Predict the structure.
Amino acid sequence: MAVLLFFCFAAIAVLCAISVVMQRHPINSALSLIGVMLSLAVLYLLLGAEFIAAAQVIVYAGAVMVLFVFVIMLLNAGREERTGRSLPARWLGLPLLVVLGGLLVYFVRQTMPRSEPVIFGAFDEGEPRQVGRLLFTDYLLPFEVTSILVLVAILGAVILARKEIRR
Amino acid sequence: MNFFLLTMLKAAAVAAALLTTLAYLQWIERKVIAHIQLRLGPYRVGPHGLLQPLADVIKLFTKEDLLPPHANRALFLAAPAVAVALALTSIAVIPFGPEVEIFGIRTYMQLTDLNIGILFLLAISSISVYSIAIAGWSSNNKYALLGSLRACAQMISYELPLALALASPLLLLNTLSLREIAELQQGFYFGFIPRWSIFQWPAPQLLAFVLFLIAAFAETNRIPFDLPEAESELVAGFHTEYSSMKFASFFMAEYANMITITALTTVLFLGGWHPPFPVEWGSSYVPSVVFAVAGAMALYHGLNPARRRDRLTLPVFCVVFFALAALFLTPFAQVYLVPLFWFIAKTGLLLFFFIWVRGTMPRFRYDQLMKFAWTSMFPLSIVNLFATALLVALFAQ
């Protein structure tokens, strides 16, 4: 059952990811990206990490992508013109893609030669309580540095937006 | 009995109850608003308009289904389906009552208890923004687009104070499972003050309750925050182009969201199914008294009818109410139905409050709405969260 669901949602994730690139209309791409994120959340759920799954949906599929969709709607972006592919892209694109994929597979197998098989639902350290405890003990410094980074980003956005108004 | 069959039965019961409540909530809303405005409201279809929801369903089913010529067809059709599916899904984690035993089967009055129940509801609510956004965008109509832009901005803005207000009772009760949240609010201080989160020591969540309720109005797009469908400016907002069952889907989604969020408020702040005063003071006889009084009133008005048909209809109501009163006196019902009664009573009062506000409040202006969210609600909810965290850290065991 779990394996079946895994292949189902993995396939949906890959299809949606391809659709993000192939779609001509920005809003369709954005919706496909939401599909990718939701199916990733299901994969987390299959592994037994409920909190990560919920966070994935709330933060990525909810908060981040709503802003994407909002901006696309606000700008009322139209269909994209598809220009003809350039000569090197037409001839070298597919072979390079295959080579890149092969290299990726090779390096993953090199770095993790005999990794343990994944067991669905076996991950039991993903409870909110444990995640919170780890964030405030072992990973306190990265956590605080990330929050400062976010603060810097917010301040940057505010200042950039302000300059636009003054002109 | 196996797990699968039991879950199916429970899901069927909850779905039937929810859909009936949905239909009749709309009738109640029309009646209450009518009486606030000194009108009678729906009166023609059935006694006191009681069959009006049925008539509305038939009307909506048989209306012409329009598709605007330049709309994005797939998204236009998907949006109402997504809206209603998400709205009906979120009721699954709400606990209605304690563990019960019927015919030897022990089960909870809840569809499923996730250990991330609250986060599940937040996830659903953050996804359901898309249905409104996509509905407005795909309609290819400027009013619909403006309405859905407003809805997006409003829901993103009010999700922050909503989540922060919701986090503080979680700190107080130290769990994310909705069933445990409700169970932890059992008991009384000094024998009469209920241990609901709005009263619970060391950090009573009264402020969080008010903030959550205000944000809930905005999340469900109700007056005074119904800017997305402000009919004086935007025709009907994001669902301007929708007709027939697709319009009804948005309608259903709005009312289902209202029911879910009031049920959530009951569980989080008002002690779920726990009575407001102890059983020793006779709280388990309250439902019988309420129904008996309602029956007596129906009997009185049936004997002195204002209209001729009341002579026939009101005694029927009287019999129904007295039967309910008798049912709540049986020992079987005392165990199972009284908690359910308290849960429904609290949720119903909150729903009445929603309708009452709609009947009395004017609509906010859009800049007021945003200013209110970011300069009042947001700082207040952060202060409340910090204060709760401090009090819990200092005084909790």
